[in-house]
Amino acid sequence: MKPEKFLTIGIDIDGTVTSPSSIVPLMNESFGRDLRYEDCLEYNLANVYQITDEEFDNWLAQNGERLYDEAPVHGIADQVLRNWYPLHKLIYISAREAHHHDVTLNWFARYQIPYHEVDLVGSHDKLAAAQKWGVDLFLEDRLENALQLSEALQIPVFLFDTPYNQARLPELVHRVTSWEEVDHKIKTLSLGQARV
């Protein structure tokens, strides 16, 4: 008999399971720039690259498939997620569009990253999906999402440290620098200790 899952973990994909720097080389190639990941001090890359939101949306529509196919894994995310899978319910909630479902699942298969559900919501507003799946905590790289989810749902959010999400954080949002660190914090939660 399989053990009951301990936690339902909401997990962003881009910049969380995939390396947060993976979009920069592709954008440099397309826009003839030589920016570094460290130069991306805000989440809105249209501002960073000094292009319009429409130009960025058009670029993503043309290059999204390649971006999602070629993105490297963020650190040891694949190993950690394989270890969590028998213990926790893994729900990936991403702003990716639904038509990127196949490339997303193929990428997960290539890196042997397990999942219970993959919900591509097509928007940065992940609140309804997080409520639908009843997540106990969330892993994210976008500051605005972390703030919204932690406040609305009163759940812990682990925010992966990036140049574009620097700010003072409320009590429920915990900055983490690696998958090793978030793994340790989840183990602490799983043991029933109140503090993260």
Automatic annotation (TrEMBL):
Keywords in alphabetical order: Hydrolase
UniProt-listed Enzyme Commission number(s): 3.1.3.-
Classification via InterPro entries: 5_3-deoxyribonucleotidase-like, HAD-like_sf, HAD_sf, Nucleotidase_putative
Transmembrane segments: none
Hydrolase found in the keyword field: yes
A single MF term (Gene Ontology): hydrolase activity
Family according to the record: Belongs to the 5'(3')-deoxyribonucleotidase family.
Record's protein name: Nucleotidase
Organism: Brevibacillus parabrevis
